[in-house]
Design brief:
Number of strands of chain B: 8
CATH class of chain B: Mainly Alpha
Largest interface: A-B, 39 and 44 residues
Shape of chain B: globular
Distance between the termini of chain A: 27 Å
Largest sheet of chain A: 4 strands, parallel
Radius of gyration of chain B: 20 Å
Number of domains of chain B: 1
Structural class of chain B: alpha+beta
Number of strands of chain A: 6
Strand content of chain A: 5-15%
CATH architecture of chain A: 3-Layer(aba) Sandwich
CATH superfamily of chain B: Cytochrome-c3 Hydrogenase, chain B
Number of helices of chain B: 14
Oligomer: heterodimer
Strand order of the largest sheet of chain A: 1-2-4-6
CATH class of chain A: Alpha Beta
Structural class of chain A: alpha/beta
Distance between the termini of chain B: 43 Å
CATH topology of chain B: Cytochrome-c3 Hydrogenase, chain B
Largest sheet of chain B: 3 strands, antiparallel
Order of helices and strands of chain B: EEEHHHHHEEHHHHHEEEHHHH
Number of domains of chain A: 1
Strand content of chain B: 5-15%
Strand order of the largest sheet of chain B: 1-2-3
Helix content of chain A: 40-55%
CATH architecture of chain B: Orthogonal Bundle
Number of helices of chain A: 5
């Protein structure tokens, strides 16, 4: 069983202008077709592995975003699609905006662009699949580490390695 | 005794592309009352737009990604009236061409959404496949798929070359048979007609009471279209709006399907009447004044009001078509069965980023 072959996505719009949302919908349709990676658009957070998020987070949707994030089972990967989702620009000074997605929940992959191009989203998505696989094996590693005496340090080190790798991305 | 309960629909729901919350009071399977809860997409656009008048041109396209060109066109139209200048004829025609292309992409999105909500997955895929041809054409012409950045105050920044015009005509020739096929499917397919006919009926009087605009109003028998004003180049090309009488989800979908063919015709007419010439007029210092104007966006009439002081904007008010049409959901969802809610909501073509701004 590998998550790599069926990373189901859930899309949520936290206040975007619809530009990136349209490109995400273009991804699901024949020309870009991310179903070839095994990705299906899941409406239910409990079925999802990858969160595709668009738009700056506004004050009303922040709590809903947190709620959705908590419902997605581990391991999960968060992709912030577009410049707004990454930093909040150009709305970051507006009275109703908290900022980018990372101000509310941790983000694994940032996709650039206003609006983000489908090719860029696919690139981000393929990175996300790698991270998902890493997280899954990482979690298994630490579980083994707990059980087997003497292997704890190795487990912690590998976990830290993953974290720093993610920070650079 | 019937039991009533409240079912929340959204803000995250597979049937909606965007965050909107409907509180449905349901007795058995029938919806007895609806509360529409918006604001999940409010960014404070009007505040941001009036902050810095030089950034407004960039930001105004980011109000909505689906009708970005209509927003920037109406903004330019309004501020040109304050400047007291008029865009040259060639610029007006180029604006018309891009407005019609964006109407096509928006209508295919709406049609695909209705097909998907009705459970007709293959039709959704085919609508989006046609749409992709137009997106790629626009990418070739302007360098962007969503926000074209073509408009500037006084005209347009991007000219359509002879090569570009040939490209447009060849793409239209290529997609026209497929668009016609799709229109015939939306108008005649037994499954869709049965599913959509009679769903979410909005009578002529109700449409007037709710001040419906765009395809929603035209589907209820109101001959209302801002393109009849003749803004941009619409006065030079023969244009008559498509009107139907039924007022249900089927009529709204049928109007959009027919308008796709009409848009292709309008673009061809624009290319025919395009003459060589200037593409922008010079705009100097912003004078004090106020103005308002409107265009027909894919979802209906889009109105901008601007007030300027010396060299800066002091107020910018936007009235979007979706902010008028979305509250109508509270009326047409009443007495619908719960299973029809996604289809009826999609047939209005709600655009939440326009509604909330």
């Amino acid at each position: 069983m590998s998550l790599k072959n069926s990373p189901w996505v859930m899309h949520f719009d936290t206040g975007s202008c619809n530009g990136c949302d349209m490109e995400i919908w273009a991804l699901l349709t024949p020309y870009y077709d991310i179903e070839r990676f095994g990705a299906i658009n899941a409406g239910n957070p409990k079925h999802a592995d990858v969160l595709l998020l668009t738009g700056p987070v506004n004050k009303k949707s922040a709590s809903r975003l947190k709620n959705l994030y908590d419902q997605v089972p581990e391991p999960k990967v968060v992709i912030a699609v577009g410049d707004c989702a990454s930093t909040g620009a150009p709305f970051q000074d507006c009275y109703n905006i908290c900022g980018g997605i990372s101000t509310v929940i941790p983000v694994d992959v940032f996709v650039q662009g206003c609006a983000a191009r489908p090719e860029a989203i696919i690139d981000g998505f393929s990175k996300a699949i790698g991270i998902l696989e890493e997280k899954r094996s990482g979690r298994h590693g630490s579980e083994r580490g707990d059980k087997v005496a003497g292997a704890e340090n190795a487990g912690i080190q590998s976990q830290a390695g993953h974290d720093s790798g993610r920070g650079e991305r | 005794m019937s039991r009533t309960m409240i079912i929340p629909f959204g803000p995250q729901h597979p049937a909606f592309l965007e965050p909107i919350n409907l509180s449905l009071e349901v007795s058995e399977e029938k919806v007895s009352s609806v509360k529409v809860n918006i604001g999940y997409n409010h960014r404070g656009m009007e505040y941001a737009l009036a902050l810095d008048y030089k950034k407004t041109q960039y930001l105004v396209e980011r109000v909505c990604g689906i009708c970005s060109f209509h927003h920037s066109s109406v903004y330019c139209q309004t501020i040109e009236a304050i400047f007291g200048i008029e865009a040259p004829e060639r610029a007006q025609i180029i604006r018309t061409i891009f407005m019609e292309f964006q109407r096509l992409t928006s209508h295919f999105l709406a049609l695909g959404h209705v097909a998907e909500a009705a459970g007709y997955e293959s039709l959704f895929m085919r609508s989006f496949a046609v749409r992709e041809h137009i997106m790629r054409l626009l990418n070739r012409l302007t360098g962007s798929r969503v926000h074209y950045s073509v408009n500037i105050i006084g005209g347009v920044r991007t000219d359509i070359s002879a090569e570009g015009a040939r490209d447009i005509l060849s793409v239209i020739d290529e997609i026209r048979p497929e668009v016609k096929t799709l229109r015939d499917v939306f108008l005649n397919d037994v499954t869709l007609v049965h599913r959509l006919s009679g769903a979410g009926k909005l009578t002529l009087d109700e449409a007037r009471d709710w001040c419906a605009v765009g395809p929603v109003a035209r589907a209820s028998g109101i001959k209302e279209d801002a393109r009849l004003d003749g803004f941009a180049a619409y006065g030079k090309i023969d244009f008559q709006p498509i009107v139907r009488e039924e007022g249900d989800a089927f009529a709204r979908t049928a109007i959009r399907a027919e308008e796709c063919i009409q848009s292709l015709d309008l673009i061809e007419k624009c290319i025919m009447i395009m003459k060589d010439g200037e593409t922008s007029a010079v705009a100097k210092k912003l004078p004090a004044g106020s103005s308002y104007s409107r265009v027909e966006a894919p979802r209906g009439e889009l109105v901008y009001f601007l007030r300027s002081e010396e060299k800066k904007l002091s107020r910018l008010k936007i009235k979007t078509p979706a902010s008028v049409n979305v509250p109508i959901l509270a009326s047409i969802l009443k007495n619908a069965s719960l299973a029809d809610v996604p289809v009826i909501a999609a047939s209005i073509d709600p655009c939440i980023c326009c509604t909330d701004r």
